[in-house]
Design brief:
By secondary structure, the chain is an alpha/beta fold. It is built from eleven helices and 13 strands. It has one domain: Alpha-Beta Complex (Spore Coat Polysaccharide Biosynthesis Protein SpsA, Chain A). Helix content is about 30%, strand content about 20%. Strands 3-2-1-4-7-6-8 form a seven-stranded mixed β-sheet, with helices on both faces. The protein has a three-stranded mixed β-sheet with strand order 5-13-9. Strand 2, helix 2 and strand 3 form a beta-alpha-beta unit. Helix 7 crosses helix 9. The longest helix has 15 residues.
């Protein structure tokens, strides 16, 4: 029975593979034997630089091609992860995530007895539970599941998993129709992967089966941390100082995040200095 981590790496006019690379380095720093796969678009393997390739055990291609080419929302391809994963058991992670000081055995153990699992909670950089009233405003208004789909565990062999990803296909591809049908009052402004996957869970009425509290999952943004101000920028790095130090400390303002699955969300966080620190941790 194989198990490993999968992330989605769609390149654009900017180097987006480096976020997957940072994630892979962070996992390898914890356990050099942990297996990591990056999924890329068809015929894009050669665009992955040789340095990046060294961090992955597998690089697979989207089996059905890039299905987001019109809208450009790359998360529309999420439904293909169950087909692209080379593992029997998979933990999917958004590319803008890093792991620090995580006991990977305990992480996998949390998903025992689950075919599919997502976290119902997340923490702020101050180690408080996030304020769901911001991120899940639509879900709360329409009484939908409120899960953090930036990390998804699934067992490829289970019918319930195949059913969930099969439902995710039309929901993600036809997200405008989903919005117009479901949301008559409060409406999202644009494509929202997390909301749409919560809709998938709602349509299949499986929230009680897949929702679990992962206590060391962090979701870093400003409003979920209760920083309410009309002038708050979208990217948290524009208003808060962050350091990933050479001695492996991750600080935001005066708060140290000692360890966890950290969905940092803001791609500006990954600098060459951060990559250097992560790389150095893989060789220690």
């Amino acid at each position: 029975m194989s198990r490993g981590f999968v992330t989605l790496g769609i390149n654009t006019d900017r180097d987006r593979f480096k976020y997957c690379y940072a994630l892979a380095l962070s996992i390898k720093a914890i356990d050099k034997d942990a297996e990591v796969c990056m999924v890329v678009d068809k015929d894009k393997y050669d665009e992955v630089g040789s340095t990046y390739k060294e961090a992955f055990d597998y690089i697979t291609e989207l089996p059905f091609g890039l299905t987001s080419h019109i809208d450009g929302f790359h998360a529309m391809n999420m439904w293909q992860m169950v087909h692209a994963s080379p593992f029997n058991e998979t933990i999917y992670l958004d590319a803008d995530t890093i792991l620090r000081n995580v006991d990977l055995d305990l992480l996998w153990d949390q998903f025992t007895n689950h075919d599919l699992a997502v976290s119902s909670i997340a923490r702020t950089y101050r180690n408080e539970l996030t304020d769901k009233s911001y991120k899940f405003e639509i879900e709360q208004h329409y009484n939908l599941p409120q899960n953090y789909n930036n990390m998804i565990y699934f067992d490829n062999s289970k019918d319930t998993v195949l059913e969930w990803f099969k439902m995710a296909d039309p929901v993600l591809q036809n997200w405008r129709d989903v919005y117009s049908t479901m949301f008559k009052e409060k409406k999202p402004q644009t494509f929202d992967k997390n909301l749409l996957l919560n809709c998938v869970t709602h349509f299949l009425d499986c929230d009680n089966d897949i929702s679990i509290p992962v206590n060391n999952l962090y979701d870093i943004d400003t409003k979920s941390a209760r920083l309410w101000n009309k002038d708050i920028p979208h990217n948290w790095t524009e208003m808060m100082n962050a350091w990933y130090t050479d001695d492996d400390k991750f600080l935001i303002e005066n708060y140290n995040i000692p360890g966890g699955i950290i969905h940092y969300g803001d791609e500006q966080f990954i600098t060459e200095q951060v990559l250097d620190v992560l790389y150095s941790r893989t060789s220690t």
